[in-house]
Amino acid sequence: VQLQASGGGLVQAGGSLRLSCAASGRTFSGDNMGWFRQAPGKEREFVALITWSGATYYADSVKGRFAISRDNAKNTVTLQMNSLKPDDTAAYYCARRLPNYRGSYQNSDGYDYWGQGTQVTVSS
User: Fold this and answer.
1) Residue 25 and residue 124: Cα distance in Å, rounded?
2) pLDDT (tens digit, 9 = 90+) per residue, 33-70?
3) CB atoms within 10 A of CB 51
4) What is the CA radius of gyration of the chain?
5) 73: helix, strand or coil
6) What is the pLDDT of residue 1?
């Protein structure tokens, strides 16, 4: 089972990027999928979650600027990032939430399969 994140790059502040997470080895259509990010010297932090039914949740820092979506037919999850800021600079990871995890969806301990990360750099 693999999650492959892509779409990162260098963009100016105010710009947009679209990240994709492609799953292989099994279908994730019945899973809740999340995006996290980690900047150098900082802990990994929650960005967004989409449930198997399409409900979405966001960190306060990205609400209104980022949008998470999924295409179950293609087994992919997408993170559309608009109005990017230098503080958004980080490696971005997609992950599957453990089905029976009862803790907060913002806790990275509640996720098992992780992609390799894709770097997003926002210049001022």
Assistant:
1) 39
2) 999 999 999 999 999 999 999 999 999 999 999 999 99
3) 15
4) 13
5) coil
6) 75
